[in-house]
Input
Amino acid sequence: MIPLPTARQRALAAHRDRSGGVKCFAAAAPGRVNLLGEHTDYNGGDVLPIAINLECCAVISHHDAGSRAEVHAVDLRDTAVFEADDLDVYRAGQRTHAAPGESWRAYVAGVLALMRWRGPGLHITIAGDVPRGSGLSSSAAFEVALATALGQALGQSSDPIVRARLCQRVEHEFAGVPCGLMDQAVSCVAIPGHALLLRCREPVSFRHVPLPPSAEVLVVDTLVPRTLASTAYAARVAGCRAAAGLLGVKHLADASPIPFGESLIDPAHESGEDLAPLVRHVTTEQARVSAAAAAMEAGDVARLGALLNESHASLRDEYRVSCPELDCVVDTSVRSGFAWGAKMTGAGFGGCAVVLAHPGASHRLAEHITSSFQRRFGRACSTLAVRAGGGAACIDVE
Ligand code: GLA
Output
């Protein structure tokens, strides 16, 4: 079977056709799966994601002295033109009528605006292999690939964490998603074979932790559309902020766990929602990240797997961001005898689970999960064995 062209190959070939082979700048950046530290990044906590070997690629060349960028999204077969003076119309809230599939324009406008591009005129071509809308951070891969290629094209150099923060601002200010720093940071600084232990508060710091060779990483996509994800995500962020205020801490990750049976009601909020479960998840998850990094360093995969299972239970019961399909994948994996542990990964509300499979067992495990899922829901899920890859890089183009 002839392999399909990769995102790099598609972007470079399409760009060559559009720009006629003039000098170009290209960069690629990966998506991610998070092993541990879910919903802790915007609470000043730690996270432990890996970059995956699926990436987005952006190619840029100068075309004239003007201030127009013509951008072609290869996989969407869509082209958009941006004027340096009009980028603000893409700011979140300014443009409420973006059609489905058009959100990529906000990412482009955000990167161009925040990198202060005023010209020269550009041709930009983008293609990606990270599945969209699955919770594997295709948007972070898109923003980071574009920002890295643009940095090169405009002769701007920057520290990778500064670049990650800029891409996070694109999410906040242009996509309207109040996300933490995890996705953009791992896409910028990951190294192959390692997870990234990232401290998400100022000053941001990180260290690379080797992934034990006795664990294979399997990603299972439930294909549950994450339509309500952004509203529900923003509601969790707001709940955590309110809880931190009530408890008098700057970062919720620093709060003391609230015992079961006790509640934390926000008097200012008319719904009277009990915020204690959010606090219990964030504080226990923060402790699990440290334990997981220690387990990885000690090569204790069984302990790492157990921590994933505990994390999933907390995300399901306390943070309430799982769904029956994700729970089914996790339960099936844990009972199969082929896995060290499993949990949902990313924001939740559908999307993917990450499973740590025994060495050599990913294939059998994937078959087992797929058939159980089919029996229970009458439809397929999709599985993908991934490797811990490296972060964003410029590509040498002849
Ligand atoms: C999304 C956000 C991240 C993080 C995760 C949950 O992926 O973009 O910043 O909050 O959800 O851990």
